[in-house]
Write a structure and sequence with these properties.
This protein is of the alpha+beta class. The chain is built from 7 helices and 25 strands. The chain has a 7-stranded antiparallel β-sheet. Strands 6, 7, 8, 9 and 10 form a 5-stranded antiparallel β-sheet that branches. Strands 11, 12, 13, 14 and 15 form a 5-stranded antiparallel β-sheet that branches.
Length: 530
């Protein structure tokens, strides 16, 4: 090599060393940002995925390795520039030419795969956080995903071009092999866990899937279940363009059973407003007029109600209640779950209209009024206590306890709320339902269902004998991912719960289970009528 060639060669090496340093710094920035995203995900959305919540240590180790690996790459790049020799490259330890090529090709292909997966992971996080955090923050959170994906894919394509088109020696850009190894660790760890992941149902639970994800290309969430005369059962939910998305093309759908939930009819679309979000079904039955009401909301800002006088076969045109309830400009969400009719005839729809409250009617649904705000909480459910007071049970932040309050005037004012120490909060809706009362049975019983975990999983059914003061009876129904639920009972006091459940993700299906008091109490309690 003459002097001119040596000079050119040295210039190329110097440029290479500089780019290695710049790339290492860029990867370090992306690694720190990605670690921040992992932390935010765990804090804000870790409760969404049970398999992640139960294995958070993998994300912590992944973050430490990724940041540490990129810092190591920067240090090696600086040392290479100072010594004028490439240092810290794993490929240097491979002397066999074919083995070196295999090593390079493996990581190039793997990094392309990781880059593609990162796009899908960001999409998943975007759907889960859309409208929950500002769009500018979502853009910032997307930087490390798109940055890493671009570098991994471009670096691999560059290797292929240099090796097979230009026929010259090539290596992956500095830091990409280390990044590939770290991503292999996190994907491999969760892959192994998923391979052995097999959450179990409790023995003795009769179950069937009512709404299954990807039917007609859609996902299903937010169940509501009601039993009408003659054990006619109606199951409602949201049909979503994507099960993760709380916004966009969402419809209200229904299925009907004439035999107490043993068999079910075809899916019926009750409300379809194109790209608008139709959400939060919360059925309520007026026993005095035999009228079924179905309140729902549109785009989280308008409230509607429709009714049926033939047990859900035909429905009236929806009537808007937004102005009637003085809720213009407020966040609006009925239920979800069920409404109730109190012993005095008042119809109660639990709701969140600028805050947790109820909507009530004293004229069989002709007019409706908004009650007082509880003070905190959201996605409330209600039941009537034996003394005639209305008890409200609300969702709060993940990791806390359910919020409880009561009203002596049917929701027009609330006593001071408190947090139920027996009811852990997974940051999700729950269901509460009057099982028996002392006018028909020897004992009062109230049922409650929700995930018994800081994440959305380990679905549990509880029972209280003291009007919800304590919940001494508790039994896990399903050990896997689960979330929103709706309880009702058949005429023979079979307990029916419609809830979100799946093997890997709660959005896989909406499942109906049936149990009885013998199962719930392990034979320690029996229904005794007066």
């Amino acid at each position: 090599m003459d002097k001119e060639e040596q000079k050119t060669h040295n210039q190329i090496l110097t440029k290479t060393y500089k780019w290695d340093i710049y790339l290492g710094i860029l990867l370090t920035i992306f690694a720190v940002l990605l670690g921040g995203v992992a932390f935010i995900f765990i804090m804000m959305f870790g409760g969404e995925f049970l398999i992640v919540a139960e294995n958070e240590w993998i994300l912590y180790v992944f973050t430490a390795l990724l940041i540490g690996g990129t810092i190591y790459s920067v240090i090696m790049a600086v040392l290479s520039k100072r010594s004028d020799r490439l240092r810290g490259l794993l490929i240097e330890k491979i002397s066999n030419k074919n083995a070196r090529l295999a090593w390079l090709l493996f990581w190039a292909i793997w990094n392309i795969f990781v880059g593609i997966v990162l796009f899908f992971i960001f999409r998943l996080l975007y759907l889960g956080s859309a409208e929950a955090i500002p769009i500018i923050l979502i853009v910032i959170l997307g930087i490390p995903f798109f940055g890493y994906a671009a570098l991994l894919i471009i670096g691999s394509i560059k290797l292929f071009l240099e090796k097979f088109r230009f026929k010259r020696e090539a290596r992956l850009m500095r830091g990409l092999t280390v990044s590939g190894i770290v991503f292999l660790f996190v994907f491999g760890s969760f892959g192994v866990i998923m391979a052995f992941w097999n959450p179990q149902w409790a023995s003795g639970v009769q179950r069937q899937k009512i709404f299954v994800g990807n039917q007609i290309g859609r996902g299903y969430r937010i169940p509501a279940l009601i039993v009408l005369p003659n054990d006619i059962m109606l199951a409602f939910c949201e049909s979503r363009w994507d099960a993760m998305a709380d916004w966009g093309d969402i419809d209200i759908v229904m299925k009907r059973s004439f035999d107490g939930g043993e068999t079910w009819g075809d899916l019926q679309v009750l409300q379809n407003r194109g790209e608008h979000t139709v959400h939060n079904p919360c059925p309520i039955f007026d026993n005095d007029t035999q009228t079924l009401f179905l309140p729902f909301c549109v785009d989280y800002k308008r409230i509607f109600i429709m009714s049926s006088t033939d047990l859900g076969i035909t429905w009236s045109e929806p009537r808007e209640l937004t102005q009637e309830l003085d809720s213009e400009g407020l966040y609006c969400a009925t239920g979800p779950g069920n409404g109730i009719q109190m012993s005095n005839g008042r119809l109660i729809i639990p709701a969140n209209i600028g805050g947790a409250c109820v909507v009530f009617s004293d004229d069989n649904g002709i007019t409706w009024q908004k009650g007082a705000y509880v003070g905190e909480g959201e996605e409330p459910q209600v039941f009537e206590s034996l003394n005639g007071s209305l008890v409200i049970n609300c969702r709060v932040g993940r990791g806390g306890n359910r919020l409880i309050a009561w009203s002596y005037n049917g929701g027009e004012a609330w006593e001071s709320y408190y947090y139920a120490k027996d009811l852990p909060e997974a940051g999700t809706q729950a269901s509460v339902f009057r099982f028996t009362n002392t006018s028909t049975h020897m004992r009062s019983r109230v049922l409650f269902s929700n995930p018994n975990f800081f994440s959305r999983g380990h679905f549990t059914l509880r029972m209280s004998y003291d009007e919800g003061e304590t919940w001494n009876v508790s039994k896990q129904v399903y050990a896997g991912p689960s979330a929103y639920s709706s309880i009702t009972i058949l005429s023979d006091y079979t307990i029916c719960i419609l809830f979100e459940a799946g093997k890997y993700d709660l959005r896989e299906s909406i499942t109906l289970i049936k149990v009885d008091i013998d199962w719930l109490t392990d034979g320690q309690d029996k229904l005794v009528s007066k």
